[in-house]
């Protein structure tokens, strides 16, 4: 089959979790003998022309970010470029990932003119929401109430709110998408609640072997950052309030009493982290934290190898969170959130623990349990490795998509 993948950004020019997922799928499809092409985008700082780089086509797209909720629906110039490239590529399958910033939802209409098999994977809630889903109703119901209202959208977007956006997205999907794929059942529930059509679930996968760190790399990382003798909790990603920084810092205050040598290792922007510490009013806990700016994948592997456990305490519908799978690939237990897709990845009591991070005492006790019980942490880490190899590899993910394409 000739498979065309679409994503707003693509590595190595633009690194992101969804870009990496798309690139991994492209590589796996090629390994299985399929012909693959990719259409992505770039900004004016790169070039004002269409770039053809092997099997990757990059379209020049530029507009004011404040117009995103309007421009994400359709841009005539982008549509014309997509039409020309799809006519040239002549795909059997078009599979879109993130379109909601540059390539636009109109890409699906154009794709449908070239093939009847058009798919889109939703990696977040932007098809019906204007930011992360973390309403008071959602948090109070521990993730059960996924409905959002126009008022929720206005509060998130302010003057950027587009009253017809969600309706237009829904109609575009109804007319053109063969299947709308969610990366977790938690996300599918939210898509269904907002009447998006023909949904199904395919979990994300990772290249498991590529996430393993050697003992030498791990030891070097520990030495470089003076981590010897520390019990390390790893936390990272795009740092923000909705990733659970406040309950984590408050839990850390309690953890320090039971585990004096604990260190919270934070991967992300140090300036952003400093603001989150101040916002949480947790300067005492922050003395037991070390924030390191973004790392290469090689260094990140060593970071996983150096830690004792990983925590993902998101306070939003965090649809999958690849850190869960990456931690399990490195045989590390995870203390994860009850919100979003994490409970589908981390098996509670087997590969780690699931909790509501807002229940700080319970959250802290679970962290303490794993930090003090090395045998349990190892057992859960090994179970996590077996689980990720069975369910969350790029090979499993690609096979499920190929089966979907052929239905």
Notes on the structure:
This protein is α/β, with parallel strands linked by helices. The protein has two domains: 2-205 and 393-406, Rossmann fold; 208-391, Glycogen Phosphorylase B (Rossmann fold, 3-Layer(aba) Sandwich), CATH 3.40.50.2000. It is 44% helix and 16% strand. The chain contains 18 helices and 14 strands. It has helices at residues 17-31, 68-71, 76-89, 106-112, 136-140, 150-157, 165-176, 185-193, 215-224, 245-258, 270-280, 283-286, 297-306, 322-329, 342-345, 360-372, 374-391, 394-406, and strands spanning 2-6, 35-42, 51-53, 56-60, 93-96, 118-122, 179-182, 199-201, 231-236, 262-267, 289-292, 309-312, 334-337, 352-355. An eight-stranded mixed beta sheet has the order 3-4-2-1-5-6-7-8, sandwiched between helices. Strands 11-10-9-12-13-14 form a six-stranded parallel beta sheet, sandwiched between helices. Strand 12 (309-312), helix 14 (322-329) and strand 13 form a beta-alpha-beta unit. The radius of gyration is 21 Å and the shape is globular. The chain starts with a strand and ends with a helix.
List the helices and strands and how they pair.
Elements: E1 2-6, H1 17-31, E2 35-42, E3 51-53, E4 56-60, H2 68-71, H3 76-89, E5 93-96, H4 106-112, E6 118-122, H5 136-140, H6 150-157, H7 165-176, E7 179-182, H8 185-193, E8 199-201, H9 215-224, E9 231-236, H10 245-258, E10 262-267, H11 270-280, H12 283-286, E11 289-292, H13 297-306, E12 309-312, H14 322-329, E13 334-337, H15 342-345, E14 352-355, H16 360-372, H17 374-391, H18 394-406
Parallel strand pairs: 1-2, 1-5, 2-4, 5-6, 6-7, 7-8, 9-10, 9-12, 10-11, 12-13, 13-14
Antiparallel strand pairs: 3-4
């Amino acid at each position: 089959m000739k498979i065309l993948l679409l994503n707003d950004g693509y590595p190595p020019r633009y690194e992101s979790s969804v870009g990496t997922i798309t690139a991994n799928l492209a590589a796996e499809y090629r390994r299985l003998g399929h012909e693959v092409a990719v259409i992505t985008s770039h900004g004016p700082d790169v070039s004002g022309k269409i770039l053809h780089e092997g099997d990757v086509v990059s379209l020049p797209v530029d507009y004011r970010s404040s117009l995103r909720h309007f421009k994400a629906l359709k841009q005539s110039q982008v549509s014309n470029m997509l039409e020309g490239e799809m006519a040239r590529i002549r795909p059997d399958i078009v599979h879109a990932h993130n379109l909601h910033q540059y390539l636009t939802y109109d890409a699906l209409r154009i794709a449908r003119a070239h093939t009847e098999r058009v798919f889109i994977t939703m990696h977040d809630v932007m098809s019906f929401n204007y930011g992360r889903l973390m309403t008071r109703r959602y948090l109070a119901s521990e993730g059960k109430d996924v409905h959002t209202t126009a008022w929720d959208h206005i509060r998130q977007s302010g003057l950027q709110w587009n009253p017809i956006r969600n309706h237009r997205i829904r109609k575009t999907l109804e007319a053109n998408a063969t299947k709308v794929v969610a990366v977790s059942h938690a996300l599918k529930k939210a898509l269904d609640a907002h009447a998006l059509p023909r949904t199904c679930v395919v979990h994300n996968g990772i290249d498991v072997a590529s996430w393993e760190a050697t003992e030498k790399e791990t030891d070097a990382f520990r030495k470089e950052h003076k981590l010897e003798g520390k019990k390390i909790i790893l936390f990272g990603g795009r740092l923000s309030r909705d990733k659970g920084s406040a309950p984590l810092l408050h839990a850390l205050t309690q953890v320090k009493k039971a585990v004096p040598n604990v260190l919270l290792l934070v991967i992300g922007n140090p300036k952003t982290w400093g603001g989150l510490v101040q916002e949480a009013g947790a300067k005492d806990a922050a003395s037991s934290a070390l924030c390191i700016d973004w790392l290469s994948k090689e260094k990140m592997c060593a970071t996983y190898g150096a830690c004792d456990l990983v925590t993902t305490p998101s306070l939003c519908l965090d649809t999958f969170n690849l850190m869960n799978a990456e931690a399990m690939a490195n045989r590390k237990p995870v203390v994860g959130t009850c919100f979003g897709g994490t409970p589908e990845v981390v098996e509670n009591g087997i590969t780690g623990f699931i909790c509501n991070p807002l229940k700080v005492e319970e959250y802290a006790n679970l962290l303490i349990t794993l930090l003090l019980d090395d045998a349990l942490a190892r057992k859960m880490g090994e179970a996590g490795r077996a689980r990720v190899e069975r369910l969350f590899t790029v090979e499993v993910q690609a096979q499920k998509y190929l089966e979907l394409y052929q239905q």
